[in-house]
């Protein structure tokens, strides 16, 4: 591993800069390789374009790449894992954007399949799983990487799935061949079909209480994805049952929170009106990440077009604790969480705003960014929540200052395998303790009379 070359002191942000670990004092060890800061937004800027003052990347990463990012100390625990994970999620976001464009605009419906539970799965789900699995294996060695992830290759390996499989292989190779812009060294030659299938099927860990494993939801909210709406790519690292890193890619969730309100295919509507400015921080999606215990969470814009500059901003949960002013999020699909029950809770707690119904873990992102105050999910009795639907979001909200528990006030338990075992009634994530307590009391008061 190589350490960055130091960049001259006057290029660092001024003392008032909000990220204190990137001040000149500790900049020697900083792995956030500043090249400058933006005078307008006062955010750190890292140059990805060809630049004399470029810094070096990890040995196994592409030597020609200028991608630089991630504010953490190289000696810090999980610094390297975080860097690789963020890069992998950026690559996955771009992959998904391309596939979603094709699905939504070109009506590429052939590349959507139905799973046994009737939920959709697309070439993006398999392609992201293969791509992230390959990137993690390259970075840490296949023998050191254990992944719990949503997809398997059963339906993909069937004889009638040959055209889907070849689309997946092409999508993975296209995505990896352009991954060098993120500092990821592409494969020397295109991956063969067997290698792609192997990368997907390697993600067959069952998790558990000991050791280290990654948790991946390649496309969370696949229904939102196929509808041209919100979805997320979620990658977390769990060690001895505790989520230690979380990275959440939200390709359709730009900086401006109002965009969340464009439900039912806002991107489609928007793109018809005017193509979003691809280089704009405001018009593009974001990647959020956090490391357990750092008390900090971060957001980067998604790269697109020829954009050569990237910056990260610290994010914090909302300071609103008055229910009258608070907004709660919940799944779009009634089948995934009872809207009737949360409506009753909202009424008894005094929430007045309309619920923000959003697909996927973008809801966790909304709480962590301070765009909403409460996320509630009350699935039907018997539904078993999977760890990949929550792991990354939980650590990001907690490090951004929020709280995530079940309805009994217990932290979610990621140590029991693929499912969140022992979950009490539902999931409640809040910006602060006061709202959280009010919701929990309201659940206690109304649970027995509910049909859940
Ligand atoms: N009956 C059900 N009850 C609760 N959650 C469900 C469900 N069926 C599927 N889900 C989960 O809800 C996720 C979508 O979240 P949301 O409803 O918040 O958009 C799905 O993720 P995938 O789309 O990755 O399968 C799936 O894991
Ligand atoms: Mg999911």
From TrEMBL:
InterPro entries: DPNP (IPR006239), Inositol_monoP_metal-BS (IPR020583), Inositol_monoP_superfamily (IPR051090), Inositol_monophosphatase-like (IPR000760), Inositol_monophosphatase_CS (IPR020550). Its cofactor is Mg(2+). Mg(2+) 2 binds at residue 220. Keywords: Hydrolase, Magnesium, Metal-binding. It is an enzyme of class 3 (hydrolase). GO terms for biological process: phosphatidylinositol phosphate biosynthetic process; sulfate assimilation. Gene3D superfamilies: 3.40.190.80, Fructose-1,6-Bisphosphatase, subunit A, domain 1 (3.30.540.10). Its EC number is 3.1.3.7. The keyword Hydrolase applies. Belongs to the inositol monophosphatase superfamily. This is 3'(2'),5'-bisphosphate nucleotidase.
